[in-house]
Amino acid sequence: MAADLSQIVKAYDVRGVVPDQWDETLAELFGAAFVRVTDADAIAVGHDMRPSSPGLSRAFARGAAALGADVTEIGLCSTDQLYYASGALNLPGAMFTASHNPAQYNGIKLCRAGAAPVGQDTGLAEIRALVEKWSTTGAPAPAASPGTLTSRDTLQDYAAHLLSLVDLSALRPLKVVVDAGNGMGGHTVPTVFESLPLTLVPMYFELDGTFPNHEANPLDPKNIVDLQARVLAEGADLGLAFDGDADRCFVVDERGRGVSPSAITALVAARELARNGGRGTVIHNLITSWSVPEVVREHGGTPVRTRVGHSFIKAEMAASGAIFGGEHSAHYYFKDFWNADTGMLAALHVLAALGGQEGPLSALVSSYDRYAGSGEINSTVTDQAASTAAVSAFYADRDDVTLDHLDGLTVTAADWWFNLRASNTEPLLRLNVEARDEPTMRQIRDQTLTLLHP
């Protein structure tokens, strides 16, 4: 009976419960299918700290080698470390991780050589079809000359590359608390930070894919409570929190308050524009703050607005030659990192900006955090399309607003905007509101929620 992969092959990756939804037998077929679809004669494979990751990763490597590809196994790594290997070695890559999902989950993030993304429209649908077929007919015939499996540690080279992209020569001594959430930040942070004048206060650096302390998702406020308290207790200059596969980074200031990822996007955009002579395109998704395109223009750059999601950001990065891109989900993309996302490089920019002047982080980011935002509010609805249409109809005849449908519904007025987007996986609508002041933001937020729940 053919495997049903409809529940685990998502828009941009593979993700599901092990062994209930997939296992090493299927991982081996995914390895073979990846080589067949990409026509690769060599690939790189890495994995996170989840208990099932080494076995799944090795099975994938066996399947790839059976079809003739030489496999470079980079072992334990963060997702952006796998992207580094794909870019620096010019190899297609596979990263075994389920990011911040619970311990029983695992997945695969795939890319072509140079860290170019693989999604449903760029090879993932074909990979799924082959795996489903071979799960019935048996694995494809092996190549006449099977590939080799070789181990290679890329951590030092990854760290050196990141450090070469940020001028840290003026960095003053700083105390930084880092919460790795028992994820891969505990593997990468010590090596990246070891040459810097930092007093590092580590939290939950032990690699443990069962996440014994808290979920490794720093965008959920409950998961940064420990970090916020520790920053205050230590009198630290800032705190950093990484997600499970350490490709996202969230920042806490010296007062223990979270810094909006939009403010970090604006700060890094200003620095990247300065590094490029005050010229360049910067990508931002449509739920980032108004401050992002404003700061980009103020520093000589051209802002480009996109849909939410890394595939749209990376496609626009490549099409426009953009130097940087940021999302409100704390994903940060860099031209000099093969257009891929790396939270670690964004963290180094924050350290360089803070350590290059004498003021506290709260003062530094205040010029980039200009408006009142609601954060993302999820509403459960019975009919996403009907609920969205009801909100759209409420504003349709008003002369003081504009409506657009680039990604869900965005309504924009002189003093506020909101975006309402449907979840792809749950019966939810996601609302983000921003206004020039807090009372206006609350009024628009509450009015929109009332329309969703009459």
TrEMBL record:
Keywords: Isomerase, Magnesium, Metal-binding, Phosphoprotein. Residues 376-448 form the Alpha-D-phosphohexomutase C-terminal domain. Pfam families: PGM_PMM_I (PF02878), PGM_PMM_II (PF02879), PGM_PMM_III (PF02880), PGM_PMM_IV (PF00408). Its cofactor is Mg(2+). It is an enzyme of class 5 (isomerase). Residues 7-135, 157-256, 266-371 form the Alpha-D-phosphohexomutase alpha/beta/alpha domain. PANTHER family: PHOSPHOMANNOMUTASE. Belongs to the phosphohexose mutase family. This is Phosphomannomutase.
